[in-house]
Structure formats: C-alpha cells, structure tokens
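pinned: reference chain
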Amino acid sequence: MPESYKPAKFVSVQKDAISGDPDLDRAGTSHIERKNGTLRGWCKRLCRLTYAYSKKWDNLKAALALHFAHYNFCRIHGSLRITPAMAAGIADRVWEISDLIGASPR
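pinned: its structure tokens
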C-alpha cells in the first residue's frame, strides 16, 4: 500500500474549548464524526478519490455554505421533528430553497 494511504499514528488527545463555555467532560468526537459523515455523503467534493472537486476556493465555500444553510434551516431532522435553526430559536418556520436564495449576501 502506498505511504500516502496509511493512517496517521495516534499521539495524544487534548480537549480545549475554542469558543463558548462547553462542558468538556461531555465533549467527544461522535457528533463531529457524524457531521463529517453527513457532509461527505452530501457534498461529493469532499469525498476521497473522486472527480467532483472544486477547482476554485470560492466554489467550495459556496457549496459548503449551501449545505449548512439547507441542513440547518430547510431540513426537518427526525430526532428533533423541526429544523436545528427552529430548535435554537433563530427561525420560526421551515425555510424553502427560495428563502435561502433571498438570504444570499450578493
């Protein structure tokens, strides 16, 4: 197997808060790994060994922004039965795709 495909060797783990005041005793990687899996499944630009890549950095940023906006404002999650934005109190309804386009900063 080529060297570039071997997994990295585990060295150590240290939990640090980047922002806010999280409970580090409850912090783990399972939520992040689930989000990464969802993102890679939806945005093929992030899958390994694929032709669907972004040649321009702006195109990748736009694709990721669309994914996160749709995931948080338009998609009803089964466990919540509402969108994450509604659960957080920053949206009062499920957004349509036209709402995302209208909210564009351009």
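why pinned: The chain has a mean pLDDT of 84. The chain is about 40% helix and 0% strand.
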